[in-house]
């Protein structure tokens, strides 16, 4: 089977555009920073096998971003409360922290937006496992 870079690029752009639309922004760089920060925070919260199963449903370009700087020896990170989760997402990308995540409610809205997009593009079973890997207080941010 031939590797078609253009098709993979299109799949990645479709997902990024969905995130941008959910965030109500035309700034694709901002959407990309936010998507990356939230994806990598979710990744770090998951046990290695779950992180790999989750990544399997991402377009190949987003898989690379998802696994960038991944250290399987340091996961899953233990985060039990919402504020700690918000701070963890903020710290995943310094540029996003300074430009996109100045207020906690911006991070909460970004987490919710990315999760909403993932719900439309991934299997329900996979996202249920992701939710179950998160403490109840973090899950509640998705419903706030």
TrEMBL record:
InterPro entries given in the database record: DUF2267 (IPR018727), DUF2267_sf (IPR038282)
Species of origin: Pontibacter ruber
Domain of life: Bacteria
Name of the protein described by the UniProt record: DUF2267 domain-containing protein
């Amino acid at each position: 089977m031939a590797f078609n870079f253009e098709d993979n690029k299109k799949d990645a752009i479709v997902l990024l555009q969905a995130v941008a639309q959910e965030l109500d922004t035309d700034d694709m760089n901002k959407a990309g920073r936010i998507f990356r920060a939230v994806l990598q925070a979710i990744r770090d919260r998951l046990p290695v096998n779950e992180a790999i199963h989750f990544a399997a449903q991402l377009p190949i370009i987003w898989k690379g971003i998802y696994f960038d700087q991944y250290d399987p020896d340091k996961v899953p990170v233990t985060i039990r409360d919402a504020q700690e989760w918000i701070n963890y997402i903020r710290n995943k990308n310094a540029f996003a922290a300074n430009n996109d995540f100045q207020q906690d409610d911006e991070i909460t809205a970004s987490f919710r937006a990315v999760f909403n997009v993932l719900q439309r593009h991934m299997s329900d079973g996979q996202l249920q496992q992701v939710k179950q890997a998160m403490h109840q207080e973090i899950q509640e941010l998705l419903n706030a």
